[in-house]
Write a structure and sequence with these properties.
two-stranded antiparallel ribbon; 17 helices
């Protein structure tokens, strides 16, 4: 039987990412040095500008809370794209998670709400898998359709379920659910107070380090701990097990994987359903931990930002966690009305852009170097001429940071080779 040509190229060898042929990965000590360098830079900015909130425990605690839903959405994208399926529908799956999480949470208890949110996201993932894997629908079109359907579904049923009867009596409305109970938060006794006392001295670097650690050990939701565990579990499953090797082979070269006996459809289905569950968990976090209610428009584009964090992290959990932390930090600035903090960080942006310009000029990329230098000069003038930044700019900070990070990191990225390609069963035979 003659096999027709397809969009997936014939394999040279069954190869998965992360091998010697790819880009060099950062070792753990190097990552620690990068984190220490970033903290040192923030400490210097705080000392120069006097913006004490930049590294305060409150800012870090808020950043952690904002980073979790972004990170979970990105983790969902990582599962799907490692299996070769682009999941633009993460935003819609998060919306389903917020709705079902709040719906079950106020009627029963928040942990059942978390479970309902995960199931809601998984249903969105299943729909995406059926469309893309079984019927071969374009991944982008399917994802956008899921985002639209999820928004329409939740808008309709919020009016139907939250605006009548007991729900309305307990505070529900066409655009929000009744409040759910809190999920338990934990604080390490003694350590949190000691770190807070050190932070109040405003010592260079030492107080900043105390503020960062204090924010990570004070009033931490149990669901946040679950999210951190999921990052570690994802790394173990995808990179340390034979199951993960087979799943990643489906995203690198499904034809070669099928020729070696891998059921490509099954692994793609599993990956996309898990992807939806992760995004749904991120949505449930928003409605049950961040605000305790479902609100229309609650996700605020965090599904897309999670996808950007995954790309920034080069499709790996560690890099994704760093990206989610960065975007969460920016998101927390608008939450805390951080006009002074954003203004202080303009100085750090000037240094980064100036260093980038010098590096580009050294590499003889004169156009890029000149553009970076001009932007650095413009930001420096803005910083010197003002004392704060407008509220509108603070609100846009997460999205501006997303664009900056993606533009600066684009040259080092290496996506799975078969990511987004249409695959039909039997191509490997």
């Amino acid at each position: 039987m003659t096999v027709t040509a397809t969009s997936t190229p014939p394999p040279a060898a069954p190869k998965v990412s992360g091998g010697k042929g790819g880009r060099t990965r950062l070792s753990f000590p190097v990552v620690l040095l990068i984190v220490a360098g970033a903290l040192l830079a923030l400490s210097a900015v705080r000392a120069i500008t006097g913006a004490q909130d930049v590294t305060s425990a409150g800012q870090i605690s808020a950043a952690l809370a904002m980073a979790v839903p972004i990170g979970l959405a990105g983790l969902g994208g990582l599962w799907a794209e490692r299996a070769g399926v682009v999941n633009i529908g993460l935003e819609g799956m998060m919306i389903l998670g917020t709705f079902f999480g709040a719906w079950a949470g106020w009627q029963t208890n928040p942990w059942l709400g978390v479970l309902a949110g995960v199931i809601g996201g998984m249903l969105g993932g299943l729909l995406h898998a059926v469309a893309t894997v079984t019927f071969g629908v374009d991944h982008i079109i399917s994802g956008i359709a899921i985002n639209i359907l999820a928004l329409g579904f939740t808008t309709y049923f919020a009016k139907l379920w939250f605006n009548t009867g007991e729900a309305a009596a307990k505070g529900g409305s066409p655009k929000q659910s009744p409040p759910a109970d809190d999920i338990t938060s934990v604080t390490i006794p003694g350590l949190s107070d000691w770190l807070h006392s050190i932070e109040k001295h405003h010592w260079f670097f030492v107080s900043d380090l105390a503020g960062v650690i204090g924010g990570l050990v004070t009033n931490v939701s149990l669901l946040t701990i679950v999210a951190v565990a999921l990052f570690a579990l994802t790394f173990f499953v995808l990179w340390k097990t034979s199951f993960g090797l087979r799943l990643r082979s489906c995203g690198e070269n499904p034809v070669a994987a099928e020729s070696l006996g891998v059921n490509v459809y099954r692994y793609k289905y599993i990956a996309v359903i898990v992807s939806g569950g992760m995004a749904g968990l991120g949505g449930a976090f928003l409605s049950l931990v961040t605000s305790h209610i479902y609100n229309e428009g609650q996700t605020g584009g965090r599904g897309y930002i999670g996808l950007a964090a995954m790309i920034f992290g080069n499709w790996r959990p560690g890099g994704l966690a760093m990206g989610a932390g960065l975007f969460g930090f920016a998101d927390a600035l608008q939450l805390r009305n951080g006009g002074e903090s954003v203004h202080a960080l303009l100085l750090l942006l000037v240094v980064v852009l100036a260093a980038l310009a010098a590096w580009k000029l050294y590499r003889k990329s004169f156009v890029q170097g000149a553009v970076s230098a001009v932007i650095a000069a413009a930001v420096l003038v803005w910083y010197l001429a003002t004392d704060t930044v407008p509220t509108e700019f603070v609100s846009a900070t997460p999205y501006i940071v997303t664009l900056l990070v993606l533009s600066l990191s684009a040259q080092r990225l290496r996506m799975p080779k078969a990511d987004g390609m249409r695959y039909r069963k039997g191509q490997g035979k």
